[in-house]
Specification:
The chain is an all-beta fold. It contains no helices and 14 strands. Strands 9, 10, 11, 12, 13 and 14 form a 6-stranded antiparallel β-sheet that branches. Strands 2, 3, 6, 7 and 8 form a 5-stranded antiparallel β-sheet that branches. The C terminus is likely disordered.
Length: 202
């Protein structure tokens, strides 16, 4: 399987993955971090409780803990009602970029916006040398040591202090496909928002 980077939003697929409920939203604990139990389920990556985004009987949305940075593989288990699954092994890499898509399937148009927040589309295209914002995950560890499950400065629980902006460490390059040929676009910065984002010039 393709490797996953520390901090990546990932999915676990299977059967009977939770208590039978469909929980499509998450929340933050008293510690200000994303909760690690949803729909009666917990997921552990290298025995570290993974923050959870959603939980259904066939799919779980989790964050790969930042603590796996520097490792080549990690173990994954799912526990429901006191029963723990067989251990599965995933590959770990410094980065595993994935762009969020408009249709939420992982295919088709990416979620890319203009500076005013409007979506880049065929009807509202990006222009040469325009700065756009690309929403992605899997950009790797950040320079301020953001903890697993900790919200970025763009997303924090009510009443919690705003964290400092965190920048990803690994170099970021985005490629823009034109009618003629793909070409690299300069990445002005790669920081954290509600998700990770990257500003690209093309």
């Amino acid at each position: 399987p393709a490797p996953l980077a520390p901090g990546t939003i990932a999915s676990v697929f299977g059967s009977f993955l939770n208590d039978g409920s469909t929980v499509l939203s998450t929340g933050f604990g008293n510690d200000g971090r994303l909760i690690t139990s949803l729909g009666g389920t917990t997921v552990r990556v290298n025995n570290i409780p993974a923050p959870m985004f959603f939980s259904t009987p066939q799919q779980l949305g989790i964050q790969i803990p930042f603590e796996v940075a520097g490792q080549a593989t990690a173990s994954v288990t799912v526990s429901v009602g006191g029963i723990t699954s067989a251990t599965r092994t995933i590959n770990i890499a410094p980065t595993s970029p994935g762009v969020f898509t408009v249709n939420q399937s992982g295919g088709g148009a990416g979620i890319i916006t203009h500076a005013d927040g409007s979506l880049v589309s065929a009807e509202n295209p990006a222009r040469p040398n325009e700065v756009v914002v690309l929403f992605a995950t899997g950009l790797g560890v950040v320079n301020r040591g953001l903890g697993t499950g900790t919200p970025s400065s763009g997303c924090r629980p009510k009443g919690m202090p705003r964290p400092s902006s965190s920048m990803v460490i690994e170099p970021s390059t985005c490629w823009v496909r034109s009618m003629r040929r793909p070409k690299p676009a300069s990445a002005s910065s790669a920081a954290l928002s509600i998700t990770s984002w990257m500003m690209c010039r093309g």
